[in-house]
């Protein structure tokens, strides 16, 4: 209203509640300052449908959920470990309308299962998480099996000195680090020098090979394993867009405001996060066999950004970490704190092998943040100190 914004939310969808939410939003807009970056809303757009909804997931019965949970508990009891976890299922509907005639509507669904298995003495633990929009494709047995295996194989860990080690990151560990990475390719922050994609003189690194030449990072709303929203930022119709192709930074995301200011076309920002190799992927077993000395990482936890200009992150390993020597896993080790730049992690010369992408979810998001990401074997990973937690 008059270039002012107001917003309101409600969890009731009857006519009276919706009208009340509109009235509240209008009232807040009237007393808000003028939005100096305001642009008129979009007119009519065309949206290509996305197949990311399964009725069986949205309407999953309590009995079906109980059976899955019972399978996990039974498997943990048989293995002599203590099990805990989350089973979550939901259906969602999204709709948006503008006064200039645009309207879009879509449905999605998601089911996720995470399991933490711990030995009775509390000395070791294992974790595994998977999700899908279709409950029929959620492998419950694999989730419990892997969590239990990791717990049993993590008993009596040894201590290693912190330092820089070659490392293999399982898909879950990659997801914990990179599940939101594709959403950070913002043109404005790069232009303003606040991004790992900034270059001197107010320029950006678009067109530069700053990642390993095999790495592709892109968003594809119609990927059959990871369908995204048909609508991207500001209601722009989503498209398949490469952010990184063969290691080269190909695109940054321009909002409608920043595109207008810079004389560019607005970019349909990413609606999902996919990373894959342009060459034949390697299996986890092949990565281990190719490692003379290194560390196998199952997952990370409590990850926080340190420096946005270098994509430096810090966090902790959790629930299974092992020492590799002469191409074999030798023994479990105690946990570390790490300080690692994501640009350095994925840089030319540091990535040695790349796996096939798997659908995974961020552990900190309890499975709600989905991505298609591979295992990675890297030359250097920076462990800064030891962590006593299991």
Report on this model:
This protein is of the alpha+beta class and 390 residues long. It folds into four domains: 1-38, no CATH class; 55-151, PmbA/TldD fold, CATH 3.30.2290.10; 163-179 and 279-387, no CATH class; 181-272, no CATH class. The chain has nine helices and 20 strands. Strands 4, 11, 12, 13, 14, 15, 16, 17 and 20 form a nine-stranded mixed sheet that branches. It is globular and about 65 Å long. The N and C termini lie far apart (53 Å). The model has no long low-confidence stretch (mean pLDDT 96).
> What's the pLDDT, averaged over the residues?
96
Order of helices and strands: HHHEEEHEHHEEEEEHEHEEEEEEHEEEE
CA distance, first residue to last residue? 53 Å
Low-confidence stretches: none
Q: Give the proportion of residues in helices.
A: 10-25%
In angstroms, what is the radius of gyration?
23 Å
> What does the largest sheet look like?
9 strands, mixed
Principal-axis shape equals globular
How many strands in all?
20
What structural class is derived from the secondary structure elements? alpha+beta
Number of helices: 9
Number of domains: 4
Strand content: 25-35%
Task: Provide a short characterization of the protein structure.
The protein contains nine helices and 20 strands. The protein is of the alpha+beta class.
List keywords for this structure.
390 residues, alpha+beta, PmbA/TldD fold, 4 domains, 9 helices
Write the layout of secondary structure elements.
Layout: H1 15-30, H2 55-58, H3 62-79, E1 82-97, E2 103-118, E3 125-132, H4 140-152, E4 163-169, H5 171-178, H6 187-191, E5 198-199, E6 203-204, E7 215-219, E8 241-245, E9 248-249, H7 256-262, E10 274-277, H8 284-289, E11 293-297, E12 300-307, E13 312-317, E14 321-325, E15 328-332, E16 335-341, H9 342-345, E17 351-354, E18 358-361, E19 370-373, E20 376-387
Parallel strand pairs: 4-11
Antiparallel strand pairs: 1-2, 2-3, 4-20, 5-6, 7-8, 7-10, 8-9, 11-14, 12-13, 13-16, 14-15, 16-20, 17-20, 18-19
């Amino acid at each position: 209203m008059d270039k002012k914004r107001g917003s309101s939310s409600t969890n009731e969808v009857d006519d009276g509640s919706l009208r009340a939410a509109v009235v509240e939003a209008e009232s807040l807009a009237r007393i808000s300052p003028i939005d100096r970056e305001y642009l008129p809303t979009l007119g009519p757009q065309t949206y290509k449908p996305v197949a990311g909804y399964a009725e069986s997931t949205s309407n999953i019965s309590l009995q079906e959920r109980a059976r899955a949970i019972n399978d996990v508990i039974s498997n943990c009891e048989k293995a002599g470990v203590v099990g805990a976890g989350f089973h979550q299922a939901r259906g969602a509907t999204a709709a948006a309308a503008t006064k200039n005639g645009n309207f879009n509507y879509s449905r999605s669904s998601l089911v996720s299962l995470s399991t933490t298995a711990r030995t009775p003495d509390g000395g070791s633990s294992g974790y595994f998480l998977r999700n899908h929009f279709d409950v029929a494709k959620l492998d419950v047995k694999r989730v419990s099996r892997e969590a239990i295996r990791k717990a049993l194989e993590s008993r009596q860990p040894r201590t290693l000195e912190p330092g820089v080690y070659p490392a293999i990151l399982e898909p879950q560990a990659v997801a914990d680090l990179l599940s939101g990475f594709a959403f950070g390719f913002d043109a404005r922050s790069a232009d303003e020098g606040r991004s790992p994609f900034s270059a001197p003189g107010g320029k950006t690194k678009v067109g530069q090979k700053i990642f390993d030449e095999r790495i592709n990072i892109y968003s594809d709303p119609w990927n059959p394993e990871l369908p995204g929203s048909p609508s991207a930022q500001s209601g722009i119709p989503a498209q398949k867009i490469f952010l990184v192709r063969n290691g080269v930074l190909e695109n940054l995301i321009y909002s409608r405001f920043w595109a207008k200011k810079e004389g560019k076309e607005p970019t349909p920002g990413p609606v999902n996060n996919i990373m894959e190799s342009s060459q034949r992927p390697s299996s986890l077993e092949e990565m281990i066999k190719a490692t003379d000395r290194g560390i196998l990482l199952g997952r990370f936890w409590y990850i926080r950004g340190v420096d946005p200009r270098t994509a430096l992150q810090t966090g902790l390993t959790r629930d299974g970490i092992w020492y590799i020597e002469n191409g074999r896993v030798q023994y479990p080790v105690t946990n570390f704190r790490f300080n690692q730049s994501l640009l350095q992690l994925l840089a030319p010369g540091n990535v040695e092998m790349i796996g096939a992408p798997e659908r995974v979810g961020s552990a900190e998001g309890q499975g709600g943040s989905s991505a298609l990401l591979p295992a990675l074997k890297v030359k250097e990973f920076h462990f800064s100190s030891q962590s006593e937690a299991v």
